[in-house]
Model the fold of this input.
Amino acid sequence: MNPVAASQTLMTRWGQRARLWGTTWWQVVMLGAQILVMALAPSSYARGAPRQRVLLHVHQATAPLLTGFLVLSALISLVLIRIVVATAYSYGLSQYALGVLVRTLVLELIPLYAAMFVAARYAMPGAQVVREQLSAYQRAGREWGQGVLLTTELLPRALASMFSVLMLAALSCVIALVLTYLTVYGFSHWGLPGYTRNVGQVFTPAVTLIFTLKTLFFSLAVAVVPLAGSAQQDAQGLYAQRSDISEFARLFSVVLLIEIMSLVGNYY
Amino acid sequence: MNATPDDPPVSAIPEVKNLEFKAALLLVAMLVLVVGSALYVMYARGMFEDTQRLVLISDDSEGVVVGMDMTFAGFPIGRVGRIELGADGTARILIDVPSRDAKWLRTSSIFTMERGLVGGTRIRAYSGVLDDPALPDGAERSVLRGDTAAEIPKLAASMREVLENVAALTKKDAALDTALSNVQSATERLKGPQGAMGVLMGNDEDAKKLVLTIDRANALLARADALTARMDSLVSNANKQVFGQGTAEGGLVADARVTVQQLNGLLAEARTSLQKVDAVLVEAQGIASNTREATTDLGVLRGEVESSLRKVDGLISDINRKWPFARDTEIKLP
Done:
């Protein structure tokens, strides 16, 4: 084979891949921006069907997951709290246990696994449903208008995912803080001032801001990335079923990027 | 056919009982959580506390971070609000002390900043005299610094010196090595025929001499033993002679006792004679007192005689003046 032609083919393939990659992420960003704009528009919550849809999805995204997630989160938190407290005591560094727990659990882990939980249990299955609907309409020879799709399906689901992530993360953080207190001090209220002081020391203005932004971006990523993938046509212009793993990997890469940026902001 | 926006091909909304109420409940719960968490963090960071300012001045603020505690007796009573570099190049640590805890800080309070090997810097306050006036708002105090990490280079230098000394001690030709060699040779000699004696004496000849000396000392001791036996018999003989043990005569001591008894008799007789002499002396004393009285009377008599003589003398003088033999005592000048 002619090396020049081979390299040209290779470069062309790479170029196509890069363009596809760029187009895909551009569509994700565009959809995220559109959802944000629509979310801020009061007309999206107008009485009647729009509001009903939003409320329905908010309820469907949060209520069924609440119990399971809180139990799971409490169990994981309890295990981690015990490990950290026991290790800190064994090294004589118990005064640092609270700070470590608040930083690892509340600031880092809980938002991450709340986002992953909502993505796995609601956002990605919901995105699959949207893609199936789109595929069915395409097979029937009908087409969904972009604005209609956005307002009727994508926006309520995205808002619901965001709300669910924020709700689960907030509740789980509160439960983790309570469990930490109970594990360290038991059922005594005398440790409360010291504990509150420790928590206050961790939540400096910068850390609080980064934590809030990180959780918001997690929720936004969980809301937008799966839906953007579902509304995207493949190379043949169809809405064929996609691998869950590849969708999850795409979402996870975004979440990981946000996590790394927050870590850089917090600790560098 | 293509769908139009007026004909949205959306799925029908499923019916959920009390959907609005449930959704509102979730939204309110979310709002309460977010607002409650924000208020809790603000409270934890002391935003609702009335505080007074304390400025600690240090030459180094390394390890001090905004938000860290200042403790008094192990209790946090203030937190670092700001750290700034002063115009004179010193670090100014601005601490916010809640008004309810400000009573622990007095004008005589001392502030220290310590850095351990593990953990961060700690700022501590000590108030020895709690009756002193309270620390005013905005007071500036110097902070005493104790830095464990700064001691490590000194410690390392000392350790190096110690290790060098140890290395010098354990060198091949060092004193310790020589001493150990000597100890080894000494222990070898200890195991030899002369044993510890050979080690003590230094050579075998001296050790032999010592053994000979001991033998002689033993012989001397045997002779001393015999001498002691002879001394014992001597002492028993002396006992017989002096105390009369084992004899009918009683020995020297018995004779001495008889002599003492005779002396006692003599003394009794002498005491009687002396009593008699005492009586004689009493009588002599009476005579003497009589003589003293007579002497007193003689003095009076003498005075009377003298006055009589003076009178006679005066009489004679008068007679001489009146008598024709009276001399002319007048001196006539030419």
